[in-house]
Design brief:
This protein folds into two domains: about 130 residues, Rossmann fold, CATH 3.40.50.720; about 100 residues, no CATH class. α5 links the parallel β4 and β5. Helix content is about 35%, strand content about 20%. By secondary structure, the chain is of the alpha/beta class. About 30% of the residues are buried.
Length: about 260
């Protein structure tokens, strides 16, 4: 195949996982963009396989990642939308197979693991990035532009919220049981968006992020509330508060600056 043919053809893509991430975000986006082709979906769940087959009848369905790796020569890109605890291992496997990789947030449970992926991708000459779709929300882009233009003057307080009401915990097994080492908890979930937006909009010092202690008991605060402080260049401070909506509590994950 000539270089011109390779450039002209769509980017042959596979999606790992067909839960909310793969079903609502990645697969529809790939299928709708003529620069990409959705060639394969990996899911071992029979209900999700049926959903994928009905929605994308021409797409190859795979039970395991091993099947995908075996077919790597027929692909260019893998999008990882599986539970966070699997991201690093799957990304390493895809890179080793010579595939470009997009990882849904959170990119990795630790910075060391994430840096290891970045270094491998550079060494292999492969593309690697994280899916942070909230950077392109219309309201956020408008705010970012206004701040950049100086239309709001010196910003001293910034508050951003994703509001929802969840009277019962998520039914997703990994969300209910995954610990920090597996990328679980609200910090790695919605917190990844809120912190990223604060860093993007206000050029906060990402090297000085710190977690503040919650004064309530360990049991009371577990998985419900977290405060991360991001000092901004120039001296301002960005506290990012996380609250998971449960009965009797305001469902207000928010970033305050």
């Amino acid at each position: 195949m000539s270089a011109a043919e390779i450039i002209a053809r769509p980017i042959r893509s596979a999606v790992i996982g067909f839960g909310l991430s793969g079903r609502v975000f990645h697969s529809p986006f790939l299928a709708a963009n003529p620069e990409f082709s959705l060639d394969a979906i990996v899911t071992g769940d029979p209900v999700r396989r049926q959903q994928a087959a009905e929605t994308y009848p021409g797409v190859r369905l795979m039970h395991t990642v091993d099947e995908l790796i075996a077919a790597a020569d027929d692909l260019d890109l893998v999008v990882i939308g599986s539970p966070p605890g699997t991201h690093v291992e799957l990304a390493h496997a895809a890179l080793d197979a010579g595939l470009a990789v997009v990882i849904d947030k959170p990119f990795a449970p630790t910075s060391i693991a994430g840096q290891g992926l970045i270094e491998k991708a550079k060494r292999l000459g492969l593309l690697l990035t994280v899916f942070q779709n909230r950077r392109w929300d219309g309201d956020f882009l408008t705010l970012k532009a206004l701040i950049s233009e100086g239309a709001l003057g010196e910003v001293r307080h910034f508050e951003s919220r994703f509001e929802f009401w969840r009277p019962t915990p998520s039914a997703k097994a990994w969300k209910a049981s995954a610990g920090v080492r597996e990328g679980g908890g609200i910090l790695f979930d919605l917190g990844a968006h809120l912190i990223d937006q604060a860093l993007q909009a206000l050029r906060a010092d990402r090297q000085r992020l710190r977690r503040d202690r919650d004064p309530r008991s360990r049991r009371e605060r577990r998985r419900r509330h977290l405060r991360v402080t991001a000092p901004r260049f120039g001296g301002a401070v960005a506290p990012v508060d996380e609250r998971d909506g449960r009965p009797g509590r305001a469902a207000l994950p928010r970033a305050g600056l």
